[in-house]
Every structure is written in C-alpha cells, then in structure tokens.
Amino acid sequence: GDTAGEDTGDAGDAGDEAVTIGFATCNMNDTFQTYIVDAATAKATELGYTLDVQDAQEDVVKQQDQVNAMISQGVDAIVVVPVDTSAMGPITDAVTEAGIPLVYVNRNPFGTDTPPEGVYYVGSQEIVAGRLQGEYLIELMGEEGGVGILMGLLTNEGAVKRTEGNEEILSQYEGIEILAKEAGDWQYDKAMAITENWITAYGDDLNAVLANNDGMAIGATQALDAAGRDDVIVMGVDAIPDAVNMVAEGTLDATVLQDADGQGSGGIEVVSKVLSGDTPEPITWIDFVLVTPENVADFQ
Amino acid sequence: MAEDTKKIKDNKEKSERDEKIERYIELLKKYGIIVALILLVVVISVAEPKFLSPKNLFNVLAQSAIYGIMALGLTFVIISKGIDLSVGSLLAFAGIVAASLGQVSTATTKYFPSLGELPVLVPILAALIIGALLGAVNGGLIAFTGIPAFIATLGMMTIARGFTLMYTGGKPVSQLIPGIKFLGDKIGPIPIPVIIYGLMIFITWILLNHTSFGKNIYAIGGNIKAAEVSGVNVKKNLVMIYAFAGLTCGVAALVFAGRVGSVHPGAALGYELTAIAATTIGGTSHTGGIGTVWGAVVGALILSVLRNGLTLLGVQAYWQQIVEGVIIIVAVIIDMRKNAKKK
Amino acid sequence: MAEDTKKIKDNKEKSERDEKIERYIELLKKYGIIVALILLVVVISVAEPKFLSPKNLFNVLAQSAIYGIMALGLTFVIISKGIDLSVGSLLAFAGIVAASLGQVSTATTKYFPSLGELPVLVPILAALIIGALLGAVNGGLIAFTGIPAFIATLGMMTIARGFTLMYTGGKPVSQLIPGIKFLGDKIGPIPIPVIIYGLMIFITWILLNHTSFGKNIYAIGGNIKAAEVSGVNVKKNLVMIYAFAGLTCGVAALVFAGRVGSVHPGAALGYELTAIAATTIGGTSHTGGIGTVWGAVVGALILSVLRNGLTLLGVQAYWQQIVEGVIIIVAVIIDMRKNAKKK
Amino acid sequence: MTENKNILEMKDIVKTFPGVKALKGVDLNIGYGEIHAVMGENGAGKSTLMKCLIGIHPQTSGQIYFEGKLIENYNTAEALKIGISMIHQELNPVEFRSIAENIWLGREPKTKLGLVDHKKMYEMTKEVLKKIDLNEDPKKLMVDLTVAKMQMIEIAKAISYNAKLIIMDEPTSALTNKEIKQLFSIMRKLKEEGKSIIYISHKLDEIFEISDKVSVYRDGKYIGTEDTDKMDTAKLIKMMVGRDIDEMFPKVECPIGDIKLEVSKLSDRSHFKNVSFNVRKGEILGVAGLVGAGRTEVIETLFGLRTRMSGQVKIDGKEVMINSPQDAKVNKIALLTEDRRLNGIFPMLTVFQNAFMANIDKYVKKSKLFDHKKATEDVNKFVDIIKIKTPNIYQKIENLSGGNQQKVLVARWLMTEPEILILDEPTRGIDVGAKAEIHRLISTLAGQGKSIIMISSELPEIMGMSDRIMVMHEGKVTGIIDNHKDLTQEELMLYATGQATSLPNN
Ligand SMILES: Nc1ncnc2c1ncn2[C@@H]1O[C@H](COP(=O)(O)OP(=O)(O)OP(=O)(O)O)[C@@H](O)[C@H]1O
Ligand SMILES: Nc1ncnc2c1ncn2[C@@H]1O[C@H](COP(=O)(O)OP(=O)(O)OP(=O)(O)O)[C@@H](O)[C@H]1O
Ligand SMILES: [Mg+2]
Ligand SMILES: [Mg+2]
Question: What's the ipTM?
Fold first, then answer.
C-alpha cells in the first residue's frame, strides 16, 4: 500500500519525533498477559517510546484488524502476542509488506522454522511448561498415583499445549493414571467446583492436580483445603504473586514461571535494536522456570 | 326433552371426571421441569451412587449458588420482558471492589496499602451497593431512554468489565479477611453459600409473590399497556427490577469471594449466559409475564447436577459440553409438554 | 360560516406545511442510526485523518464482513422474534470442517493425510451445507418442540463447539489451499470479503423485501397466531429462517478461513453477541416484526468503525472496552429519538 | 365559570400525532349524574379525546376542568386518584395473571407488613364480580377467559375504582344482549349514585336506550351536543357521517347454488357437540347465539385452529381433513377471527402489511418476487372503498383507531377471495357508514357464488344479511331457520336461550 509506505517513510527519519510501537496482546483478561504488557510498557517508557496496547480478547480476526489499523496509523514497529499461532500468516505478510518491523512475543508462530526477514520471536514453548509440571510431579509423587488436569479454555492454544506437555511426561509411567481432564476455562471458581467433584468421585485415588494456570490451581487448593485434603499435590503455571506466595507458604506445591518481564521487555529490546539499525537474533528464547519451595525466595 | 337432560347430566359427570384426570396430568405437566430434574438425578445416582452422598449433594447446592443467585435477579428481569447481559461483569466489578476493601492488613499486594483491616461490613455493603447502583443505571437507561435492554446491558457488560480491569490493572485481589472467607465456609455440614442462596430465594419469593412490586413485574412483562393504564409507575419499577438484578450480582460476588478467597478481573466471564439459561430452563419465558422463583432454582440445580454428574461419571471434557447442550434441550422439551394441550 | 371555511383552509395549509417539516424530521429520526454512524465517522476522521484513507476504509468494510454477514442471518431470526446464540459455534464448526477439506497436500499437520488437494468447491460447499443443516436443526427444534429459541440455540452453541473441539482435538487447521485464501484476498483495492459481504447483503435484501419468505418472516414476528390464521406455514418458515442464519455462518466461516489462512476451534467465540449487537444497533427489535437489512449493515459498520477508530486513535485497551460500551449505548439512544414523541 | 353544574369541562382540546391531527380543538361538557354518549365515525377522535382525559396522551393544547378545577400535567395514576376511571376500547388483560390481580393491579390491598393481602384481594374481587353478576373464580387466569368475559372483567375493574366519572369506550362491542342489559342496569345504578358516565358505542339503539345527552364529533372536530330525547337515528347519523345513509343492509338477492360446505356431527372436547349444518354457494349463513354459546369454537375448529374430537366436513361433497389453518387455506376457506389483538392484527406492522398478509401467495410473480405494485393498488382500493382512515397505508396499524383496525382486517379477508368465507363478528366497533359498505361487499361476494358464514351478536345485522340463520345455545345447534321478513328478534332469542328448538332429534 502507498499510504503505509509513506507512513513508514515518516517513521524512518523519526529521530526527534516520538517512536510509537503497536502492541497487540491476545487477552487482557488473562492475568499473565497483563504482566507481559506491564513489562513491555515499563521498558518502552524507559526507552522513550510510546506503547499503543490493543487487546484482541482471544479473537484472531480482531487481532488482524487491530494490526491492520496499526499499519494504517503508521506505527514504527509492531509487537504481537498471537491469539492463534497457526493464523499469523496474514499478519506477517501485511506487516512485512508495509516495511514495519514485527516481533512476536510469548506464543511462537514459527515452530521449528526460522522467521522471515524483519520478523522476530521472543518467548518460549508452551509445551515446556506442561513438561516441567509433569517432571516435578514425578519427583514429588513418585511413579504411581492419580492425577487430575485442570485445563484452560479448550479453545485456547496455551491450554492445549500445556496439557499435552503434562500428558507427554505422565504417559511414560505406567503407574500414573490421568483420572480426569476437565476445562476450568481459566476460572478460579469453576476449577474449584471441578476439584470438589473430583474429590467426591476419586477420593483418595486423587493424588495430584495439575492446572494450566495459577488461578485454577488456587481454586483447586481452596476445594482441597475445605475438604481437609492436604495430601494432594497442586501445581499451576504463570507464577503470579499470589501463587508464588502460596508456594512459599507451602499451600501450593509449585508453579511455573514464564518470565513475563523477560518476554515483555525482551520484545521491546528487539524493537529498539532494529530501530537503531542493529540486526538482533531472529529468535530470543526465554526459558520457563519451575518455582518450588526450594527456589521460591528468588521470585518473591 | 327428558333424554336431553339426561344426556346433559351424563356429559356433566363425564366432564367432571375428565377434568379431574386432566387436572392431574396438568399438574405433572406444569412441573415438567422438576420431572426432568428428578430423571436426571435418578440416572446419575444409578450410574454413580456417590452422587447421593450428603456431602456431594451440599457441594451441588453450593456450586449452583453463584449463578443461582444471579438467576433470581434475572427472573425479575426476564418476567418483565427484559434481559440482563451485564450480570457477569457486575459480579466481577462488585467483587473486585469489595475484595480491595477486604484485604488483610498484611497482604503482600494490598490494593489500598494505607488502609488497615476494615470491618467485614464495609466490603459487604460495597458489593451490594455497587451491584444495585449499576443495576439501577441499567434500569434507568432502559426506562428513560427507551433503548432495548439488550443494548443497555450489553454496553454495561463491556463498560463494567473495562472498569474492573482498569481498577486493578488486570491483577487479582487476594488475601481477604476471614470475615469474607467465612461466606464461602461451612456451618457444620452446611455450606454458607447454600444458606445465603436459601435466604435470597426466600427474599425473591416474597418480593415476587407477596408485594405489589412483584405484581407490577408481571404486569410490565405481561402487558405493559395494562400496567400503564392501571397507573403503575413503569419507569420506577423498571429501575427497581434491574437494581435488584444488580443486587443479586453483589450477593453472588460475595459468595464468589468467600468461596475462592480472591477475586480476579476475569471473574464470572460469560456467566450471564449460564444464569439466563438457568432462568429459562426453569420456565421463565422471554415473551414476558411468565416465570417463577422455584423455576429459576430448579433451572440452576439442573445445571449444577448435570455438571457435577458428568464429572463424577468421568465424562470427557469435549463430551461434557456436548452432553450438557443435549440435556438442556431435552429437559426443556420435557417441560414443554405442559403447553401441549394449549393448541 | 365563511370565516369558518377560511379558518379550515388556513388550518389546512398550515397543517400541510407542518406535515412537510414533520415528515422531514421523521426521516431524520427514522434514519437516526445513520446519523449516529456519520457523527462517529466525522469525529474519528477529524481526530485522525488517516481514518479516511481508502485503504483504511476498505479495511473497515472487510473487518465488518464476518460478523456483518452473520448479522444478516440474525436479522431474519430476530425479526421473527427469535434469537440465535449458536452462530459463533456454527462458524467454527463449518469453518474447521471446510479447512480440513481444504488443506494443501503438503501441509505438515494434515487432517486427512490420505486426501490430496480437493477442488475449492468441496470445502465451500461443505461450509455452506453444514451451516444450513445445523441451522435447520435449530429451526426444527424451535418449530416442532416449541422450546424457546434461546434454549435451542444455546444448546446448539455448546454442542457445536464441543464437536468442533473434538474434530481436531483442540488444534487449529492451517495451510489452506490458495482457493480458500483467495476468499480473504483483494481484487485491485477491493477486499474479496467486502464483495462477498455485498453479495450477501443483496441476497438478504431480496429475500426479506421481495419474496413471500420475507413477508412470512415479518408475519411470524409480528404476531405468530395471526400468521397461523393467515395460512402462513409457520413451522416450515421457522426452519428456513434458522437454516438461512446457519448458511450465513457458513459464508462467514469461509471469509474467516480466507482472511486468517487457518481455522482454530476457538474461532468466533462470542461472536453471537457481536452479531446480535450489530443487528440490534441497526434497529431490529427483539419484540419481533421490526427490522431491516440496511439496519444490520449500519449496525455492523458502527461496530467496525468504532473498533478501527479506537485503535487508530491509540485509545488504551481498557478504555476501548469502556468507550465501545458507551458509544453503542449513545448510538442507540440517538436512534431512539425516532420513538420519542410516541410515549 | 359554570361551577357545580358540570363535573367535567374540556375546552378547545387539540391533539396531534406525527402526521395526524387527531383532535382539532374540541369541547366536551359532562354534567353530574349524567350518561353522556360520545359519537362519531371511526377515527373521529373519540378514543383520543378520552385518552387525553385519563392522562395517557396529554393533549397538545386545551384545558381540562374536573369538578371546576383546572387539571394539568397529570398521568393515569393521578387521574385514577382524583376519580376518573376508564374502560378501554382495546382490552388490556395481563394474560397469565388472575382475575383478581388484574382488577387490583397497582392498588393491591396490603397487610400490616406491607405485603399483598391475597385473601382480602380475592374477597374484594368476589364482591366486585357479584356487582356485575359474573360468577368466576378470582384466581382464574385471564387467558382462560373468552373475550366477552374479559370485557366484563374490565367493566368490573373500572367500577371498582369508585370513580366519579367513568369513561366507557365501546364496552359492548364484544358483548351480546344479555350482558348489555346487565351493563345498562349497572350504569343506571351508578347514575342514581350521582356518578357520571361517558359512553362510546357504534350501536345506535344503545345510545337511545341509555344516554341522556349525545356529543358528536367528526374528523377531529366538534359537531354538537343534543339531549338524546330530541334526537332520532337519521339526525344522529347525519351529524356523524355528514350525509344520509340509505340502506344499512344492502342485501342483494342472488341465486343460491349447490351445497358447498357440509358439516356433520362436529364435536370438540368440551365446548360444543354434534354440530351439523351446511352452506350453499352464494349463501350467507348467519350464526346467532349468546356469549358462550360456542359459535367461535365451532368455526375455529372447522378452520383447524382447534382440535376436533369427532365429526365430518365435506366440501363439494368430498370429505376433507382440516387440521390446521393451512389445510383450510388449501380448501379455500378464510376466517376473520373474533379477537382482533390475539390473532388478528400484526400490531407493529403497517396497514399495508396487515392487509396483504393472508394473501402473500397471490402477489408472487412468476419470477418468485413479490408484486408490490399490485398489492399496493389492491390495498389502496380497499382503503378507499371501506374508508379506512389512515394518513397512508404505511402507518403502523397500532396507531389506527380501533374501528379502522377492524376495517383493515375485513379488507384482508375480503381480498383473499376464498370460496368459503367465515366472518366472526366482522363489524365489531365499526361505524354505521362503513358497516353498510362492508355489508355491501359481503353481499357482492355472495353474489359471486361464494359461501359465507357470518357470526354476529347483533341480531339486526344477522337478520338483515343472512339467507339462513343458525342459532346456538350452550354448544348445541337449536335451530337453523330460513330468514324471512316476519322473523323477529324475540323468536331468535327463544332459540338462543334454549327455550325453543327446531331440531328435535338432536
Ligand atoms: N398513537 C397514534 N399515533 C398516530 N395516530 C394516532 C394514534 N392514535 C390515534 N391516532 C389517529 O387519531 C385519529 C383518531 O383516532 P381515535 O382512536 O381517537 O378514533 P375513534 O373515534 O376512537 O375511532 P373508533 O370508533 O374507530 O374507535 C385516527 O385517525 C387515528 O389514526
Ligand atoms: N380458553 C378457554 N378456556 C376455558 N373455557 C373456554 C375458553 N374459551 C372458551 N371457553 C368456554 O367455551 C364456551 C364458549 O366460548 P365463547 O364465549 O367464545 O362462545 P361464542 O359463542 O363464540 O361466544 P361469543 O362469540 O359471543 O363470544 C364458554 O363456555 C367459555 O367459557
Ligand atoms: Mg376508539
Ligand atoms: Mg365468539
């Protein structure tokens, strides 16, 4: 497009003009995503950039529209947390065509491929979070026991991948039975209700609950508490402050830190490198870290 | 002539007998949704006897409390021929404000750091007042601008959710005072959410069936012109109807905070559909003027029995969705038999 | 007497003039929602002239296409006094099946590995047929069992979503053939979704305004009992209405697949509210019998102009929600002026 | 000021609706203890004037004095409070609520706790119902009542306010002679108590029987007020219509053909039993009976709206099964229903849409598209013939006066040109002028060889129009009588009350 070309032309010599970065997040209702946005905002402010945050509310078409509007608006760079990693083709095409640098954060649209020129990725692989939970569970529980998995919204990629990671590890042990996988839709209270029902259904056979996020893990601990079941292992993902505190207190066994700071600020750093003429690495891996009582002090 | 009279008498007797049988069938049909609930309970408890354990039954009740309470407010709204899509968001907003006023003084991320520990009455009142006030705004918009309830409450739904997210920057508020957590606790075997739910059912029932407010709700939904020509203050009543619905969201928010021990801004996302479904399953009609409190209760119970049962039976997640959809439809089809005779 | 006639003449003239002015105001009021749209466009383009660039305007149109197309089907449904909550799920189901039949042969995760590349007509027909068929099931349930549309389509919503998830195990289907991607492409400056949308608008308009089917829709929504007496085959028409709504979901699914280049099982989650909102903003009334095709189009445009504008203006995410809610309400209040004098 | 003499004085009342000036500066004065008839054609503005008075549509300009005091800016609730109540032309039942709740809506008796005192409410209801001689359970739902009963409930409700001035807007259009007599005796009692009544009706004989004074309006203008005893029918009609009407029942004699429709031993579950009759081509069969005789049920069953239990229907000698209105349509039967709001009008739709809705298929062109031009022509034609008063055919039918709504419905069914046309109370609420016009159209249809069944509670209409008259009593046919000059209302009433029967074998 003509207009977009002109606009980026403007942005090129924007030495004294303010730099605007479009940040298309996938869902601000997701607590973890708000930490990424916070980190990105902080970094942008530090570097003197304006960050224009748009929330797609898990709607891939909306995200596309928002990115298109950013292109029309003539932002200097675009950062995207994909709603659906398999659907980023059109966004990648549109942004590269407009000559605007593009950084994907948190969810990897490229899998094992290398991103095309001018496109970058900062983040991790969701499936790893699930694996970490699984591996630590084996450590705590041994190779025998019943597990319930609390999944996020079934339509959500993170939910699918994290669960896959859990299953990949647990299925290697014959003594471990996945009693149930249910959708708590990321909601605290739904997870609580499901856990209550699991306690009824499986009784002492239920030895562990792996939740796709911390909110649902917290809901599960509430239900277990109320039933006087302190023998059940519970783990979450995200390491939100409440969860970290609970790990420290011992009410939660573990959570998985997905380094929101690293991802959010990392994304902006890549942008700053590109804008100043450097060529950063196409992929910056930010690893998941398991938060357990042993290392929890580092995260508080 | 004599034959005639005999015939008439015969007819009369016959029709009296017929009427008795009819009335009996009527009754069964009238409470068709209860029949559906009983069927559901029987099937589940045969398949999984644990369902009938008192503890599980209390669980089922407690689980239905949150959307069940909202369904009570929605009963008023729907009888009056309205709709309220904002109930989930109102719960979240009322809940998050209440939670922010009800944190322990030692909370690590304290929303009002300078605030000590307030008496539990403060967050409770905050939740109730915010719920009722925003509900009243809904009602006011509908009554005084004449916009459809769908639009007013859809707008409120996104607005209230936006404010909720902004209020905490998207973060949850946790470490609540024992007074709030108590609301999710138990007295003996009885969960307090169940007691609160019971109380709300009673209040709603009194309001709907034993006050002129209740009569006005039916009139507004059944025939708004009749209400107007009878001198009913339709606008005032509409405001009250939505304010009450908002109030139930405030109550539900407190139960939520009590049960979960924290409130996050995404709380109760999409609950409007669940609560409306509970009301509708219970026979409250969107064409207005028809509906009962017990219907909303039974509707909410059907949903929670179903969800509990499907989990107990270990039905897979995808199948749970599918089965839930099918059973809701079937339950209402059973209930529809009540209208079969009315041409 | 002479004075009398003069007076009468005067009155006549006066009232004729009055009538003209009134008719003019009427017109303005009647199209109040267009006034709201124009206001919105003016405000946004003053604040951000880039809004008016042809490319951006085409973007806006293309953006409204998906829920705009579904809003067309919903217009039929809502005029007939129904509701369809399943449109988002139907889009997802129709889309994912179509996508699975329309992958390139070299796709890394191919749904039907043994299947080569099928002609594009196969996925297209699949989407349309699935949409129409499931829609017809909705209509059939409503017509033949008498359950409320809310329940039938709520059930269908969860059922269809469940099947969609099951179909791929929750994974997206991507790497679609060029023929499908073409549906999201452009011809010259004109996005093909816009062309498809235009075509659907035309078809819907013809159906609603120039066929007996359209007349029947209004009759059913206007007074279903009177429609029956007038010899309208209510049941058949209900099935057709919901089948058409389902068909629009199939079309929207194709546009979705074309634009996004893949379909994931969470596609169009919650779109039912957006599409219903578009229809309702455009003046189609949930009390039945009232509604227009252009209203649905304008309603969809208001939503996409609003979203585009808020993004262009760089309004922060939380505020966007709030502002969107407020503007929807205000737009409909402006539109409501048309009823102002008729209290 | 003329204090004390008049309870109500309305001066120079103007009321405009968009596109319609319904009242162009009219007066109305009502004395204490007076029954004052308000007359005028359909759409003259009678109901509008009354709605101004009761505070539903505040007048655009003009003053209203009640008991000598200027009353301004009030709503219905306040009007009710100061002692004005109204029986509305359109029934306003809250359908799924009880009789008692309907009557006491907005002013339920309360216990000390402020809760509704249901026991007292039911007792009060019984008392009110006794006054109008209606024996119904106060807990019965309004939906389960017939139109006539609902009308009686509305009357009871209006009386229960103990108002000083009661407005009655066509209370008798859904009643038969028996209830009308009852209503009149109530009205006389109220008058004795010093209460004033505004009475609106299109039945001229009623006016002469009950009213003290008559005020006439035409096209939103005030024509004049007269003492009723100084009036006669011709003069009244002239004042209303502005011209003479030569013939009320312009029945054209036409040859009667073969039997078109034959119904034998039709019964439903409870309302009627073994009803047999036939209609010939070119014949008008009148159906008479008291309220509750089951006439409506018979023809609704015949039309497929209700389930039939037994019986046989033959058309042109062949048995037909009619289980739904569509079946009826296939057999070229059309029905103008009794209850205008329930299954007659499409309230939110235009006059145009309302008029062609039973006839959609007729206007579908070869291209499958709807022929708007032809439909518009036809509708406009009928609007002219039966003088439907509307600014244009795109007006919402709800905004028309009651009588004009009825005319649109009549037009709808006359337009269908069916072989068998059933009309249930076709001229309810229609003014004298238009009535004659409608009678002429019915007569013309018969002349074209159509078979017509006409239910009416107005015996003069039945006797003026029918070739034969079927009379029903409590769900049975008591007589099928050839119409002749010497037939009297009294004779028909004998059959209608079950005191006579011409069918001994039944
Ligand atoms: N709400 C409204 N909007 C527009 N026009 C209206 C409205 N109400 C009444 N009118 C018009 O005002 C005029 C007077 O109507 P009104 O109902 O007072 O007549 P009426 O004398 O009671 O007639 P009828 O004998 O048929 O009941 C009619 O032309 C009618 O179309
Ligand atoms: N919905 C109903 N529920 C119960 N009973 C009914 C219902 N409708 C009618 N009936 C009864 O059926 C009988 C006949 O009804 P209806 O009054 O309609 O007869 P009708 O001859 O058509 O009278 P009219 O036409 O003068 O009103 C009455 O006894 C009435 O009480
Ligand atoms: Mg009138
Ligand atoms: Mg009748």
Answer: 0.90
